[in-house]
Write a structure and sequence with these properties.
The protein is of the alpha+beta class. It has a 4-stranded antiparallel β-sheet. The chain has a 3-stranded antiparallel β-sheet with strand order 5-6-7. A hairpin with a 2-residue loop joins strand 1 and strand 2. It is elongated, with a radius of gyration of 27 Å.
């Protein structure tokens, strides 16, 4: 049998998964002179290192965002062939006419290339709409290699203090476009956004948390909710949201196909989760009862909590309107996740990671996350049953629950 190549000569060492996980700046060999360079900014670009007419030369093949691994290998193979035959692939490439795009043209190319990574159509539209409104009027028509820091500063100054959150996002999007242009060979030197960031005024911390209800008041709230004049489907959906500690969009978009009623499990698909990973939710007895009642309320074969039409879910304003009718305008539906988390921390002995996974939170400690390969499902089931016992009790009982 032929022996595998060893030592300093890798062959097709990279793959899409490995490339996606490369974050440390540096040079990573694929084999046969092909390298992937990871820039400090996070941008990734291909370079072929080969001998051209007796001299070692580096040939840029383009950025990862526009040149795939397969395309880079194919391009590298063609250039090595030309070089071995005594030709000069660098000279051949330089003879090709390259039209440098305007900033707007480059931004739209980047937007198209990243379209599959957007979570929903709204985010996809916002990405290009913010540039259209706040950037293109300033330098959208200029060639991307001619835009400098002063142009970027002028655009950002218009919105930096009046629309701080939007401005920060716009700055990041401009930076991505310039990173792409550099990787594609349309620009050289530093990213002009980096210099601008140092001279822009600091934003005040305006982080606002979702207003929540004290967990001790949750039993009373649920009792009031059941007696309220809200629609039956809205009341069931709201109680289901509280007892599962799920997000509003996850509950409103819940489909019957996601449930295993026999196993008492709700599996929310990755494309509906904030973290982009499928999440299993254990169903407590009351949740199973809510689902049974929801099934009797509607003939919808798709959505668990349909709106006026069986083909559409409840409006995303349904819970907010319910709170308004209950004169509970100081809290938010999302805030009940905080109510649950505070209760779990103060009134139970369940480990932190169990509580965090119940909320589908990603563990921030990378070492902890690496060793934690399970979703702790059965322990979470006990946690959610304990939460139901507390939340649906006639009076809030302060009981230390054993994990």
């Amino acid at each position: 049998m032929p022996r595998k190549r060893e030592g300093k000569h890798p062959d097709k060492a990279l793959n899409p998964t490995k490339i996606r996980n490369l974050t440390k700046p540096g040079r990573y060999a694929d084999g046969n002179g092909l390298y992937l360079f990871v820039e400090p900014s996070g941008a990734k670009r291909w370079v072929l290192r080969t001998i051209i007419k007796g001299r070692r030369s580096d040939v840029g093949l383009g950025g990862l965002s526009v040149v795939s691994l397969a395309a880079a290998r194919e391009s590298a193979a063609e250039m090595r062939k030309v070089a071995r035959a005594g030709g000069d692939p660098l000279s051949d490439r330089q003879k090709e006419k390259r039209v440098v795009p305007t900033f707007e043209e480059a931004a739209r190319q980047v937007h198209t290339a990243h379209s599959a990574s957007f979570r929903n159509p709204k985010h996809k539209a916002q990405w290009i709409d913010t540039l259209t409104a706040d950037v293109f009027p300033f330098f959208g028509s200029r060639r991307i290699d001619q835009v400098d820091s002063s142009d970027v500063l002028k655009a950002l100054n218009e919105i930096w203090l009046s629309k701080p959150e939007t401005a920060r996002r716009v700055r990041q999007r401009i930076k991505i476009v310039f990173d792409w242009a550099r990787a594609a060979g349309f620009r050289s030197g530093d990213n002009p956004v980096e210099g601008v960031s140092k001279v822009l005024p600091k934003h005040r911390d305006t982080t606002a948390h979702h207003a929540s209800l004290d967990y001790a008041q949750v039993p009373k709230f649920l009792a009031t909710l059941r007696e309220s004049g809200a629609g039956a489907s809205v009341k069931l959906a709201f109680e289901f949201l509280i007892l599962t500690a799920a997000r509003t969009s996850e509950v409103l978009g819940a489909k019957w196909s996601e449930f295993d009623l026999k196993a008492k499990t709700w599996t929310i698909p990755a494309d509906r989760m904030k973290a982009g990973r499928a999440h299993r939710v254990p169903l407590s007895p009351r949740c199973s009862d809510i689902l049974a009642k929801a099934k009797k309320l509607s003939e919808s074969k798709e959505f668990v909590f349909p709106g006026q039409s069986d083909k559409e879910p409840l409006s995303n304003m349904a819970f907010a309107m319910c709170l308004r009718r209950m004169s509970q305008t100081s809290i938010t539906p999302h805030g009940f996740r905080s109510s649950f988390r505070n209760w779990a921390a103060e009134k139970t002995n369940f480990p932190r990671e169990v509580c965090e996974m119940a909320l589908a939170h990603t563990l921030k400690d990378k070492t902890e996350a690496a060793y934690n390969r399970t979703d702790l499902f059965e322990r979470r089931r006990k946690l959610m049953e304990a939460w139901e016992s507390f939340a649906t009790a006639p009076e809030a009982k302060v009981v230390k629950m054993r994990a």
